[in-house]
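Task: encode each sequence below as structure tokens.

Item 1
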Amino acid sequence: MKKIIVLLLMVTSAMTFAQDKNKRESLDVDGVCGMCKARIEKACFKTKGVKSAIWSVETHELKLIYDERKTDLKTIQQSVLNAGHDSEGLKAPDEAYASVHDCCKYRDEAIKDDHKKE
């Protein structure tokens, strides 16, 4: 009887660990300010399955936690591109980039320089 109980506990614990559905990833995403941060994170959260999205203004790193049963990294990255922000060699559509606020035009060197002074 003890062997059966131990075996059931082992199987139950193995099944619990096998169900880890949350995946952690990070991406480089272009932007320059707090408004960019809000826009990037909002775009991520609009993607079903995203549990955490934190973008750093200083490092341009987007740290994600998402349910890989509901979404994947490419889908999240596409949401960021559609919000107007370039990501890891992929360029946001011109139409999306044009929709970002004028102070967020991260492709413009003068605007990047202005944000460095702050």
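Item 2
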Amino acid sequence: MNDHDKGMINRRRVLGDAWVDRSIAKSNAFNGEFQDLITRYAWNEVWGRPALGDKTRRLMVLSTMIALKAYEEFAMHVRAALDGPPESRLTPDDIKEVILQAAIYCGVPAANHAFSVAGDILREKGLLTA
């Protein structure tokens, strides 16, 4: 199995088949090399490392996306974290704690927006009623 194949296994485990299938369907001559790059390096070389495990990496990615104000990517990883395999799935409370921590280190405006994005996803999934 090559690095791309190993990365694809990790990518599917973390993000889910539906998300990965949509990403692959959007691959084209312009962005295809980038898709291959992130599959080999992000999803194989980094997510494939055993030291931290998927749950810790999920927490790190969420906080990093808040710091970068990369809210589209943050939303994708919130959804993946809520839907992930039981051993790496995050709860709404886990996500709340990440955002509260980010408020101190990344700023209140970034955390405020992250709460809004995550809240919309939690409502969409029936995990938040108000």
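Check on item 2: The chain is about 75% helix and 0% strand. The helical segments are 3-15, 17-25, 32-46, 53-68, 71-83, 92-106, 108-124.
End of task.
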